[in-house]
Write a structure and sequence with these properties.
Two copies of one chain form a homodimer. Chain A contains ten helices and 16 strands. Helix content of chain A is 28%, strand content 25%. The first copy, chain A, is globular.
């Protein structure tokens, strides 16, 4: 394996002979879902139109990935989900073990070896008495989940070349004193609009500031900036990403000095390297920022973190094997 | 009619002999919906679980009320919806006339004379190629709508007594440079959490500031503050409410000096009167703020605006009669 070239999707997803869905009923292989109180194939999974999770984005969620038949850091995702719920006064019908069993069964029903596993609790419907809307305990919160095949946000060629990143001018990230981003939630219109802005500017992804030139987070991702032997990532105004945590651990392991603190747009523009981290994309190197080159392709640190991330995952690091027989 | 006593729900909703649903199939009277491409009873209306309108709150919407068989300012709501869509690069399958016909048919299917009419366009599903997520035109936006019986957020006794309002300490309103509130959208976790905070403080509704002691908006509502012959409402950081617009017109009509500008928490605490405006609640007088009395019951200006609002609506002002025969 070439240490300077990121592992390819082919390597990641096809080199394992066990890769690919095991034989399952056709209707489940495209995806499986759990809606309030039952398992359904993804194509039948829907949320009642008056659910406050939709009409008021009143919900929290989490996403864990499965690679080669193993959940990655499932317990960390579950612990974060519990913290998100607590911050937003949302309750779940499931204790942690039951939640893990449910997510396992969803993956098992699809037979997918590489999957994206999403689950949420919404506020539910408005209670009959309007006055009850002011009291969290008067709502019947609802649990939803779905599993779909894992798709890299950016493919091999893009990951190897590094992406063109756009620092949004038009949108700041929702500040933490409006909605705390540590509670992973649906309110992402700012993030999604910044993607359109980036697309119009010819870029491939966006990152948002707090309005004072300080970086916060990118859509679904955290950002890391490398300069000499230092590596920096924002402390505030961003999700406490599990892949961010993983990258921090890997940086420590390879002897980089990690700083979790204030990272400015200037830090990014003058970086040696930079990358994004997410459950949906792993480690995603950045080559240009606002059209200005910062690194030729994936830089050495980014590539090393990228490959370590996948190699260690496949070796079972923080892994929970999916039990594919656990289908009731 | 007593000019100092707000009209009651009974007066508003039952004094008209035409009030109440006309005979319709049972399944439609609880509510009707339109989901992507078809009419369904409300109980069957649901949004696919992977719709970005849910998982990313990537959507805009609007709500118009029907009272005594008439839409109120339907065209103004439709024009605002079109502006919301434009700001968020969302498209609708329906031109304005077709949209109006669809909303009319939904109300007609329920037979409701007093209804809450909600409609939205969501971003839809993610396109198959991840790179397409950066281009608005590569999404198939989806149209959803539903009609349910009109329920006053606060009943007669509460409206007559005035509500206890809580100025949120824990949440600021999402600022306009993150998500422009003039585009009516789902991202309301800040607003909903502030309701829980208000409930815990023994209050009945909340209002949010911008973090600098300047009032923005309340959940689903705009706020007005009356002092002597002046009446003030926030200019920025809030929805351009249609009931707000109506209240501004009525204030002008009765000779008040209207100021649309900066309104501080101190302005509210030292007001002679204050009220909230919304399509879901009409005019809602405020009696206390953070436990401090500002007005004994509904004040004279609030009551006058409240009653004028309903009297003029019933007389057909800005009204569009529902065609109850238009059911395909």
């Amino acid at each position: 394996m070439n240490g300077l070239s990121p592992l390819s999707v082919q390597e990641i997803m096809a080199s394992d002979p066990a890769h690919g869905p095991v034989a399952r009923a056709q209707e489940w292989t495209a995806g499986a879902a759990y809606v309030i109180d039952r398992f359904v194939p993804l194509g039948e999974a829907a949320v009642p139109i008056t659910d406050l999770g939709l009409v008021r984005a009143d919900a929290v969620y989490d996403v864990v990935s499965v690679s080669r038949g193993q959940f990655f850091r499932l317990e960390d995702h579950q612990a974060r989900f519990a913290r998100s719920r607590e911050r937003m006064k949302l309750s779940s019908p499931f204790v942690q073990a039951a939640e893990a069993a449910l997510l396992n069964e969803l993956v098992a029903r699809t037979g997918l070896k590489d999957a994206y596993v999403w689950w949420a609790v919404t506020r539910g419907a408005n209670p009959p008495l309007p006055g009850d809307r002011l009291h969290a305990e008067r709502f019947q919160n609802r649990f939803y989940a779905f599993v779909i095949p894992y798709v890299f946000i950016k493919d091999d060629a893009v990951r190897q070349a590094g992406i063109h990143l756009h620092v949004s001018n038009d949108y700041i990230r929702i500040p933490a004193n409006a909605i705390d981003p540590r509670a992973k939630n649906f309110c992402s219109l700012d993030l999604n609009m910044s993607l359109m802005e980036a697309g119009a500017a010819g870029a491939e992804w966006s990152v948002l500031t707090d309005g004072n030139n300080v970086l916060t987070e990118a859509p679904g991702s955290n950002i890391f900036v490398v300069r000499e032997d230092r590596i920096m990532t924002p402390e505030l105004g961003c999700l406490e990403g599990i892949t961010r945590l993983t990258a921090l651990e890997l940086c420590g392991e390879i002897g980089l000095n990690v700083e979790v603190g204030t990272v400015t747009v200037d830090d990014l523009l003058t970086a040696d390297e930079a990358f994004l981290t997410s459950s949906a994309g792993g480690i995603l190197p950045i080559s240009t920022v606002n059209g200005r080159p910062i690194c030729q392709g994936s830089g050495p640190v980014s590539t090393r973190i990228h490959n370590l991330y996948w190699e260690k995952r496949w070796a079972g690091w923080h892994g929970t094997p999916v039990d594919y027989e656990a289908v009731n």
